[in-house]
Amino acid sequence: MASSASTGVTAASVGPQNQTAGQKFRDFGTFLYNSDEGTVLGRTGKSWAHITIFYVIYYACLSGFFAALIAVFYQTLDWNFPKLAGPDSLLRQNPGMGFRPIPNVQTTLVRFVKGDPTSYSPYTDHMEAYLSYYENENQVTDTGVIVDCDAISGRRPESEWDKACRFDLTQNLGADCVKQQAFGFDDGLPCILVKLNRIFDWMPQMFTNGSVPSTIQDMYQNYYVTVKCTGENPSDQDNIGPITYYPAGGFHYKYFPFRNQQGYRSPLVFVRFERPTPGVLIMVECRAYAANIQFDRLEKAGSVHFELLVD
User: Fold this and answer.
1) Rounded CA gap, 171 and 139, in Å?
2) Are 232 and 285 in contact (CB under 8 A)?
3) Contacting residues for 108 by C-beta, under 8 A, at least 6 apart
4) Tens-place pLDDT, residues 6-25
């Protein structure tokens, strides 16, 4: 019994785990190509042909099905008009606002040293780059795609909404906020650009008689979306100083609605801080006023916030 047990242990111990490296290499070579059975990687040529034909047909059908779904999906889209617009869109027909310069998207602080170009050059460079899209050579009217709307004082007729109005920087933004004067940064009187975010087919509505908010009664003009910037807190209002707007009325109605017109440029307003208190952080809030713009500070609807610090 002892001899049998011993023999059993010895026989059991002889297995694949005790194969030499040479034996394992030969077994692997046999798996790659077995000349006795005529197989490659464990399959005969006929088996490889069958599986290849199967997967070619399978992936061809899968690709065709996917392409057909994409084609059907694209048939439902219009490259010039959004699928959801008006109240159905995420923006709910209530535009927000943006401002420039903002060279660092991680902060809304505009801080610089008066008379020190190294401190304000990131802001002026960003502003100059942004305004380059508004240069006249980029808004040519020869092709008829962009039209000159200087003579229009009210709304444009609906028949002309398929063309964009040329936004003239010189005429609209005045002579004080220009790159030749470092947009006022060198004098400690910075000019900040504000704009309305684009909403497809949105048209501003005028206030009716007696409905103009008291905060803008002295500056409201018909056919303009009025822009007003103030300090958020009483201390900010004490330090912000007087403000000049270019153009004075705000965003003119003739630049609306946005319909993805070729060459369209959003109207801009320059906000020039004439006498901000130096060395004091000022919390600034700019609001846009129209009958159909609802203000919501938490949702950032109808307004934009930034901080200003002139050292």
Assistant:
1) 14
2) yes
3) 99, 102, 305, 306, 307
4) 444 444 444 555 668 777 77
